[in-house]
Amino acid sequence: MSNQELALFAAALGTAALTAGVLVRTGRLRGWLWTYWDTSMPSAQRAGALLLLPAGVIILVGVLGAAMEATGLSPLGIALTFAALLAFIVVMPVVMSRPPSWLKPRWLRDLEARATADPALRSRLSESRRHEFARRDYRLAWTLLLSALVASIVLSWPPVVLIGIGVASAALYARRPRSPETRGD
C-alpha cells in the first residue's frame, strides 16, 4: 500500500468515525445503548459509541499533519501528527473510562439523571441487555461494512483490512435484529 493509499484509507476511516460520532451525539444512532449500561463489559466497549466523535477528529488531525509533512510544511505537520498521537495515547483512555457529559447525547444525560434518582430504573437498565441492533442501525452498519469492502478491493488495501471486515461482519451478524417469535419473548 502506497503512502497516498494509506492516507486515503485513514481519511476515510476518520470521516466514517466522525460521521457515526455525530449521529450518536445527535441521537440518530441509539442501537448501542444496551452496551452503555452493561457493567460486565470493559469500559472501552461500553463507551465505544461515544468515542467515535473524538476518534474521528483525532484521526483526521493526524492525516492533516501527515499531509502537511509530505507537502513541505514540516514543523506544523509534525506538531499536528504529534498532537494526534498524544491525544490517542492520553485523551482516549480518559474518555473511555469516564466519558464527559458534553460528549453524551442529551437524551442519555437525561436518562442517567433519572436513573441516578430512581434506583429501580437503574436496575432495569442494567438488566435489560439487548444484544441486538435496531433495524435502522443494523442496515446502516452493513452499508458501512460493504462500502469498506468495496473500497478495500478498489484501492487494493492490505489483506488485514479484509480480516477486520470479516470480524466486524461476524460481530454484526450476532447482533442482528430478530422478530419476537424467534427471540422467545
Molecular structure report:
This protein is mostly helical. The chain contains ten helices and no strands. It folds into two domains: 128 residues, no CATH class; 54 residues. Helix 1 packs antiparallel against helix 4 and helix 8 runs antiparallel to helix 9. It is globular. The model has no long low-confidence stretch (mean pLDDT 77).
Quickly describe the structure.
By secondary structure, the chain is mainly alpha-helical. The protein folds into two domains: 3-130, no CATH class; 132-185.
Number of domains: 2
| Main beta-sheet annotation | none
Report the β-strand fraction as a percent range.
under 5%
Q: Helical content, roughly?
A: over 70%
Task: Count helical runs.
Answer: 10
Average of pLDDT: 77
In one word, what is the shape? Answer: globular
Taking the alpha carbons of the first and last residues, their distance comes to: 49 Å
How many strands appear in the DSSP assignment?
Answer: 0
Reading the helices and strands in chain order gives HHHHHHHHHH
CA-based gyration radius: 19 Å
The helix-and-strand class reads mainly alpha
Low-pLDDT segments, ≥5 res: none
